[in-house]
Amino acid sequence: MSPSSKIRSIASRKARAAQTQNAVAEHFAANGWPHATSAGAGRKGVDVLGMPDLSCEVKARRDLNVLAWLRQAASQHGLPFVVWRPDGMGPAKIQSWPVMTTLESFTELLQAAGFGEPEKIRK
Questions:
Q1: What distance in Å separates the CA atoms of residue 122 and residue 116, rounded to the nearest whole number?
Q2: What's the mean pLDDT when you consider all of the chain?
C-alpha cells in the first residue's frame, strides 16, 4: 500500500468512527437521553456524554476485541456497554447494531426490568 493510500485509509476509518459515534449519540438523544452527545474523537472516557450512570463505548471496527472493549467501558463510571457497528451496516440500520455487555450487567438489567423470580434476585 502506498503512503497516500495509507493516509486515505486512516482518514476513512476516522471519518467512519466519528460518523458512528455521532449516530449513536443522536439515537440516544432521540430515545430518552435528550442530552446525549458525542464525546468526539480521541477524548478519554465514555464515547457518548449526557447519559448519567451509563458508560457507552462505540466501535466501528472490522476486528473484534469484545473483552478489551468491555474493559474499556467498565473503566468508567456507570453500567458498561458497547455499541458495535458491523461492516455493511450504515447509520440507516442503527436499530440492528449489536450492543454488548457482561452477563452480570445484563442480569441486573433483566431484573430491574421485572424479569426473573423476585425471591431469587440477590441484593
A1: 11
A2: 90
Q: Are 39 and 21 in contact (CB under 8 A)?
A: yes
- State the cell numbers at 11: 482518514
Strand ranges (DSSP E) for 72-121?
A: 79-84, 99-100
Q: Which residue has the cell 476485541?
A: 65
Report the percent of the chain where pLDDT is more than 90. Answer: 73
What was the pLDDT predicted at 122?
59
Report which of 75, 61, 65, 78 is spatially closest to residue 21, judged by C-alpha positions.
61
How, if at all, do strands 37-38 and 48-49 pair? Answer: antiparallel
| 90 vs 112: CA distance, rounded Å | 31
Q: Where are the domains of the chain?
A: 3-120
pLDDT beyond 70 at 56? yes
Q: Which of 22, 86, 67 is nearest to 49 (CA)?
A: 22
Q: What is the pTM of this model?
A: 0.86
